[in-house]
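User: Please predict the structure of the protein below. I'd like the answer in structure-token form so I can feed it into my own downstream comparison script.

Assistant: Understood. Taking the following sequence of 334 residues as input:
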Amino acid sequence: MRLKDRTLALCFALACFTWAGAVSAQTPPQASSQPSPQAWPQRPVKFILPLGPGAGADIGARLFADRLSARWGKPVVVENRPGGDGFVAITAVLGARDDHTLLFGPAAAFTAHPFLHDKLPYDPKELVPVAKVSNTLVTITVPTSLNVGSLRELVERARAEPGKLNWATVTGSTDLIFAGFLKRTGIEMAKVPYRDTVSALNDLTEGRIQVFMAALAIVRAQAEAGKLKILAITNRQRAKAAPDVPTAKEAGYPTLDFDGLVGLYASPVMPVDLRERIAADVKAVAADPAIAARLEATGQVVSTGTTAEFVVEIDEQRAAVVAIAKELGIKPAQ
């Protein structure tokens, strides 16, 4: 072959190679059978709550659902499924077995379940943490008529009148936390069970029960009206919403430390990288001061972070519950 012919052949081959590469670069890869995090969400996302409408977590869920919907380009639907000590909501999430259905609520709804029920309709290990959203501010509150001004005074009063004071909580973990506090301080109080916060709050205000471990949002209005006295918050740091109220640790009772962890959880089918992406999106949304202000009005504090950090905090809370249950002689469900 002559030099000129060889040159023409080489140029033609090079042109064909370049054109083929360009076509290949423009052709999208075949879709994977499992959607990647980049493709998520592919349809509406659902937040299922173990609480009814109007609860602090419910308000928070709707705030984040609205902002995340705009961020994700798909609707985020909030569905309330209260009842059954959280079982209804939890089993709905795990039963869906997809990465578009998440539980939104307090970790306290399930960390204590193995010590409060003989049998569970789900395996707690299957509920995986996704993203932390906030801390619920939890209080130790008494009626003003009790004439007790501090946590220490309450302990002294209970020691002076063993078994005469009543107490209540309405969530699983707080039940164990307060029962552990009583055992560690060596005081006796009678527990009064309640299924709803309204009945407990009414009885507290009327003095029919003397101590209520409850979210700040539940007791704040009556406290501001002078009918209730908030002795302490159980969170690790003082709250801007109640700056004059000491933490339980500051009041001298560190065993009452308890942060109400509110966040998103999913079934194990959700891959870790998607969980981390959702956590990052939650953190970005929470950076808006308007979100922090709205949550503060419901007795919550914005508290976000990575999925790994959320896992650590839940494990710490679970370990505290396990230790208290052991002290109380309560064995986990089989």
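That's the full token string. The two ends are 85 Å apart (CA to CA).
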